Amino acid sequence: MQQRLLIVTLSLCAILLFIGLFPIHGEAEIYDTVVRLHVLADSDSEEDQARKLRVRDAVLSVTTPLLADCRSQDAAREILEAHMDELQAAAEAVLAAEGCDDAVEILLGEETYPTRNYDGICFPSGAYLSLRVCIGEAAGQNWWCCVFPPICLGASTVSQEDAEEAFISVGFTPSQYKIITESQQPVYKVRFKLLELLQGLF
Question: Using alpha carbons only, what angle is made at residue 183 by residues 178 and 188, rounded to the nearest 5 degrees?
Answer without folding.
Answer: 70
